[in-house]
Design brief:
Number of strands: 10
Largest sheet: 4 strands, mixed
Number of domains: 3
CATH superfamily of the largest domain: Butyryl-CoA Dehydrogenase, subunit A, domain 3
Bound molecules: flavin-adenine dinucleotide
Structural class: alpha+beta
CATH class of the largest domain: Mainly Alpha
Distance between the termini: 28 Å
Helix content: 40-55%
CATH architecture of the largest domain: Up-down Bundle
Order of helices and strands: HHHHHHEEEEEEEEHEEHHHH
Strand content: 15-25%
Shape: globular
Length: 379
């Protein structure tokens, strides 16, 4: 049986997220965007109403919910502000390596205290010379009797500098390439971690993105997640599980742009009639709606596969790729519907367009998603 209806609990969660987005995020979105301001007060409130750490088991202080619920919440929060919404949900991504490969002891030690408050985690893979080509990372974790010494620089790290916990990917055997990558969980208070350049981003400016530098950071052997050399596998599984909520976040931004364009088209009069009376504008709005509905269905399907623990790499990649591509298209069309006013900061649509762009780049660029999808087709 196929069932597209939401349960009463899911509807209540979506209503909570919508109310939170309208009351707590939307009024502050422009200010946080303009000033690239970390939303610490909003995170505190989001944590208090249960909108953070939703996929973490209840026994560890999380919400005990699934990817489907995370997608419902992501769409609502990012419709108000993609940067603030992403900051609220980013722990879901950054803590996944622990859920994938952490021992009970590692989960108790690191995840439980983090979930007790509005604390943040960060996922550190990208380096200045290694983005799509993960096998080119130069950060090393040299094995010693008392653990590992991590050296290297990570770049473009969301929550960098404001996170208390870092899931770090480093090479324990450079000559093995991706098979030599291992994953580590590192608290920010260990000696040798520092924060480098704060990135001045085009969009999603409310989430902190920075360099994170590891200078002779000594971690115990118990900080390693999984076996040596399993890091790449853990990373791929982490991305695949989280792509549906990035897709949902893209849908949220696209939906906001469509709502703004629809309202504007009914208000703005040219040639003696509202823009909405011109078929060219009606068809734009209709095409935007078609893309959003299709993206949401792909997203929910991928989230469902993740929650059922069924194979999801192909569908997750499709959802992320399609939803972020249409978010870019829809937000660009929204600017067009607004005409000249769409291009100035007094109206919200230029922000949607800037925010949408990031979804096509992070969590694996959409070129890399197409590579994964083609591999799925050809395997
Ligand atoms: C806002 C933001 C937040 C981010 N947050 C994080 C984070 O929290 N943690 C983290 O580790 N990283 C993060 N990243 C980094 C992100 O994952 C990388 O930017 C991304 O993987 C692409 O790497 P790159 O920027 O080095 O681009 P490159 O890999 O240099 O790619 C440049 C272009 O070439 C294309 N390309 C590269 N290789 C191929 C290929 N084989 N075939 C076809 N096309 C190819 C790419 O698709 C892209 O269009 C973030 C990035 C952004 C913009």
């Amino acid at each position: 049986m196929v069932d597209f209806s939401l349960s009463d609990e899911q509807k209540a969660l979506r209503a909570l997220a919508r109310q939170f987005a309208e009351n707590e995020i939307a009024p502050l979105a422009a200010e946080h965007d303009r000033e690239a301001k970390h939303p610490s007060a909003i995170l505190e409130k989001a944590h208090s109403v249960g909108l953070m750490n939703m996929t973490i088991p209840e026994a560890l202080g999380g919400g005990g919910l699934g990817m489907m619920e995370t997608c419902l919440v992501a769409e609502e929060l990012t419709a108000a502000c993609a940067g603030i919404g992403s900051a609220i949900i980013a722990n879901t991504l950054a803590l996944t390596p622990l859920l994938v490969a952490g021992t009970r002891e590692q989960l108790e030690r690191h995840v439980r205290p983090l979930c007790a408050g509005p604390d943040l985690a960060a996922l550190c893979m990208t380096e200045p010379q290694a983005g799509s080509d993960v096998g080119a990372i130069r950060t090393t974790a040299a094995s010693r009797d008392d653990g590992y010494v991590i050296n290297g620089s990570k770049t473009l790290i969301d929550n960098g500098g404001v996170a208390q916990l870092y899931c770090v990917f480093a090479s324990t055997s450079v000559k093995k390439g991706v098979r030599g990558i291992s994953a580590f969980v590192v608290p920010f208070n260990v000696r040798g971690i520092s924060v480098g350049k704060q990135e001045d981003k085009m969009g999603q400016r409310a989430i902190n993105t920075s360099e994170v530098i590891f200078d002779n950071v000594l971690v115990s052997a118990e900080s390693r997640l999984g076996d040596e050399g399993q890091g790449f596998k853990i990373f791929l599984e982490t991305l695949s599980r989280n792509k549906p909520w990035i897709a949902a976040a893209s849908v949220g931004v696209a939906r906001a742009a469509l709502e703004a364009a629809t309202a504007y088209a009914q208000d703005r009069v040219q040639f003696g009639q509202p823009l909405a009376s011109f078929q060219a504008i009606q068809f734009k709005l209709a095409d935007m709606a078609i893309k959003i509905e299709a993206a949401r269905l792909l997203t929910w399907h991928a989230a469902w596969l993740v929650d059922q623990e069924l194979r999801h790499d192909y569908e997750s990649a499709i959802s992320k790729c399609y939803a972020s591509d249409i978010a870019m298209e829809v937000t660009t069309e929204a600017v067009q519907v607004f005409g000249g006013y769409g291009y100035i900061k007094e109206y919200p649509v230029e922000k949607y367009m800037r925010d949408a762009k990031a979804f096509q780049i992070y969590m694996g660029t959409n070129e890399i998603q197409r590579h994964i999808i083609a591999q799925g087709l050809l395997r």
